[in-house]
């Protein structure tokens, strides 16, 4: 069932668990994530970065694929189709294409401009029954060529943006995209606590879910995180399983070169990673 992410995240915040946003890259990714959500009776958010949207031949292609799969695979759990780190223009394109949720990443603008653009999108999302995520304090690491420094958001700015009528808020708390470096300082729970105290019931979003230890994930959820984004970890497990298949020479045995065979171990690996995350986040049986 394709829905916006507002209701599922309100329920998650009240129920002290988090819904996973898993980024998609192609058909295998999308199918693996949807089937795993259904098998675990879990709500799920499919994340699409602007780069991945382009790679998959545009947002309309993505909407067609996701809607088709939900129908043909009988996916009845709540599924949101969400633009990840959207530019203002990218957000408008996804509204038109039929996404149910968008993230406007205005974290690199001065706060006044971030507020002004977010405000416009609040109105547009309300008119289109879509949910909106805003960001304060940029997330570190590299994503689609944009490198953030992993700063901690100012809780007062978080409150200002949360009050604009958005549905959930991403705030930097020392998290970064991709693998964490060995000298990573960990999440700033002090910042997260201060943000939650000012923003109350607003579901908070933790980006850079790959590689955050389980105890930190649990603590973040206890401090109001209701949506956790995972991308790199699925890519790593897909690559590892595919490498193993090729290194074992299986693509050269029989019809092992058939993409339906060659991509199967990676597909299963994504499913296993997603299941593990749903269990850790506590979203199993919360559909
Ligand atoms: P990772 O790639 O570190 O899991 O981060 C995903 C993310 O935050 C997407 O917005």
Overall description:
This protein is of the alpha/beta class and 287 residues long. It has one domain: TIM Barrel, CATH 3.20.20.70. Helix content is 47%, strand content 17%. It contains twelve helices and ten strands. It has helices at 6-15, 27-39, 50-55, 59-72, 88-97, 111-127, 155-162, 189-199, 214-222, 232-247, 259-262, 264-281; strands at residues 19-23, 44-49, 79-86, 101-104, 131-136, 141-143, 146-148, 168-171, 204-206, 225-230. An eight-stranded parallel beta barrel has the order 1-2-3-4-5-8-9-10, surrounded by nine helices. β9 (204-206), α9 and β10 form a beta-alpha-beta unit. α2 (27-39) runs parallel beside α4 (59-72), α2 (27-39) packs across α12 (264-281) and α5 (88-97) runs parallel beside α6. The protein is globular. The N and C termini lie close together (10 Å). The model has no long low-confidence stretch (mean pLDDT 95). 1,3-dihydroxyacetonephosphate (13P) is lined by residues 23, 47, 84-85, 177-178, 207-210, 229-233.
């Amino acid at each position: 069932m394709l829905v916006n992410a507002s209701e599922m995240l309100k329920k998650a915040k009240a129920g002290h668990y988090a819904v996973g946003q898993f980024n998609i890259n192609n058909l295998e990714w999308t199918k693996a994530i949807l089937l795993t959500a259904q098998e675990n009776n879990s709500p799920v958010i499919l994340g699409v970065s602007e780069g991945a949207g382009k790679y998959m031949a545009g947002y309309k292609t993505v909407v067609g694929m996701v809607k088709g799969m939900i129908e043909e695979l009988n996916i009845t759990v709540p599924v949101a189709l969400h633009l990840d780190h959207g530019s203002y223009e990218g957000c408008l394109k996804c509204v038109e294409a039929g996404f149910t949720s968008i993230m406007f990443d205005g974290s690199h603008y001065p706060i006044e401009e971030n507020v002004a653009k977010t405000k416009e999108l609040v109105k547009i999302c309300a008119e289109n029954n879509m949910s909106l995520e805003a960001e304060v304090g940029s997330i570190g690491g590299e994503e689609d060529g944009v490198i953030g420094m992993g700063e901690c958001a100012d809780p007062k700015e978080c409150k200002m943006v949360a009050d604009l009528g958005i549905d959930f808020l991403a705030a930097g708390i020392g998290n970064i995209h991709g693998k964490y470096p060995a000298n990573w300082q960990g999440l700033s729970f002090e910042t997260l606590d201060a943000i939650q105290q000012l923003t109350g019931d607003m579901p908070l979003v933790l980006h850079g879910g790959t590689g955050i230890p389980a105890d930190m994930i649990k603590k973040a959820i206890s401090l109001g995180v209701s949506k956790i984004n995972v991308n790199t970890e699925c890519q790593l497990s897909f690559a590892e399983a595919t490498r193993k298949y090729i290194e074992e020479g299986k693509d050269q045995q029989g019809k092992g070169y058939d993409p339906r065979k060659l991509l199967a171990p990676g597909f299963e690996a994504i499913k296993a990673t997603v299941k593990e995350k749903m269990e850790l986040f506590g979203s199993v049986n919360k559909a």
